[in-house]
Amino acid sequence: MASAIRDLTFIFASCLEARTNRPMSQKSAGARRPRPQGFTERQGQYLAFIYVYSRMFRQAPAEADMQRHFRVSPPSVHQMLVNLDRAGLIRRRPGVPRSIEILVAPEDLPILEWLDVHTSSHTSSPP
Questions:
Q1: How far apart are CA 61 and CA 123, in angstroms?
Q2: pLDDT digits (tens, 9 = 90+) for 1-13
Q3: C-alpha angle with apex 72: 116 to 28, nearest 5 degrees?
Q4: Alpha carbon distance 107, 52 (integer Å)
Q5: CATH architecture of the domain with residue range 2-22+36-108
Q6: Burial of 23 (0-12, 13-18, 19+ CB in 10 A)
Q7: Pick from 42, 100, 7: which is nearest to 15 by CA?
Q8: Cβ neighbours of 15 (radius 10 Å)
Q9: How does DSSP classify residue 65?
Q10: Where are the domains of the chain?
Q11: Which phi and psi angles does 78 have, rounded to 5°?
């Protein structure tokens, strides 16, 4: 099941890349430096994850979903959401689970970088 979700997400990210005509890798030298869109590279990855997850599952991700994806602690995810909310990049309804709404246009979001997903994962190399 997890493999199927990763495959679907990779396909979705590839379609999004084709639609926006941007390269998959958008790494910059300063990960903390705000981008022209008004958010850092890391904030952009959280926004992209929320967008992709919401489109795939028709509901916003829970904080636990983001924790698993980014491999960070629960307080790290919560603080990122607080910062995104304060910056006006997302909106949340207090006390309502999975109520994250992105306030950034989809075309301004970066391509989501998936951890440990390689296109050549179906071929094994000798140890």
A1: 31
A2: 555 454 444 445 4
A3: 65
A4: 12
A5: Orthogonal Bundle (1.10)
A6: exposed
A7: 7
A8: 10
A9: H
A10: 2-22+36-108
A11: -60, -45
25, 38, 107, 116 from 3: Cα distances, Å: 22, 33, 27, 12
- Tokens 């006390």, located at residue: 95
Place of tokens 């990855």: 45
C-alpha dist (Å) from residue 53 to 31, 60, 66, 81, 120 = 23, 7, 10, 15, 23
28 confidence band (pLDDT: 50, 70, 90)? very low
- pLDDT, tens digit (0-9, with 9 covering 90-100), for 32-78: 444 556 899 999 999 999 999 999 999 999 999 999 999 999 999 99
